[in-house]
Amino acid sequence: MGTPDGHRDAGPLRPLDALLSETDEVLRRGTPAGARVWSTGFPVLDAVLTGGLRSGELVLLGGPAGHGKTTLGMQVARNAVAAGASALVFSFEHESHTLLERLISLEAAEADPGEVAGVIDVRRVLETADRGESLQSLLGGLRGGAQAYAALAGYGDRLQIHESSGVTTTLERVREAVARVTETTGQAPLVLLDYIQKVPVDRRGEDERVTAAAEGLKDLALSARVPVVAISAADKDALASGHRMRAKDLRGSSALAFEADVVLIVNDKVDVVSREHLLYNLGNIERFRAWSVVSIEKNRHGKAHVELEFAKDFEHGRFDREGKEVNERLIDDRVFVS
Ligand SMILES: Nc1ncnc2c1ncn2[C@@H]1O[C@H](COP(=O)(O)OP(=O)(O)OP(=O)(O)O)[C@@H](O)[C@H]1O
Predict the structure, then answer these.
(1) Domain SF4 helicase spans what residues (predicted)?
(2) Strands 87-91, 291-299: pairing kind
């Protein structure tokens, strides 16, 4: 039986000689024989991840509330689609029209990083329209709107948003939707799930539920040969001020960190730089507020404990793609609190 990326399904047991000839056969067909790789669209992040996100991987994206997890996840999904792949977003948090408003502005800014319409401009135009005008014509009135509309329309069904429910969107429904998108678009999608603690699982305690959800998503990544990027909420204690969020602060953290292949934690730079950078140059506080630090805390196929920084452009629902390694010393855990 064939699989989405052309590997022959020989069942779970693989003698080495069969594995060698199977790999040889795949290569001779002109197909890559390893995992499929989805570029994140962020060159420095791709470099750390040795190319991008891989089929079979569970990637956790954590961080304190409101610090850009959804923004980063949506941008990675959009970048994959812009590069010709497909993506499926399970959104337990936002309605699809809210994500569409962000996507329109993000797309406009990606085409022209100048003074294009922000998310708020897009929302205002859509919410106040009352003359029966078409979406294309409304967006045509916004700077960058026409290009954004054309790009999004061009993606067609390769980007799909699933308005998920913490009651009915079980792992089984997630699995079915991935299979459906694979079938209709002809390619296995990058999967973004926002967020893992919302997936309904029939277990008692929170840790048990998160464990079951993480196991289920890892299993899905392997069996459907897709990367699953799961956004994760922080534990209550980690939300206290003066704390650098780490993988151990994710809700249900022990199972999450164990199951995940890659763990990315987003923090505001101003919250995580060592205090000497703030004390002796007060201008740094304002400068650091404009940046987020993405810490690669776990990376099964490459270097871990790398700190990257990206300029925020939340006004356009995005981060600047040209990030870099953080130069400043970061605090380890607890910040100095006077
Ligand atoms: N139009 C806008 N202009 C500027 N900032 C905005 C705009 N819209 C949203 N933001 C900010 O962007 C930030 C990132 O939002 P995002 O939804 O990505 O965060 P998150 O980490 O996923 O949050 P949560 O944990 O609440 O889901 C938020 O702090 C929000 O206040």
Answers:
(1) 31-326
(2) unpaired
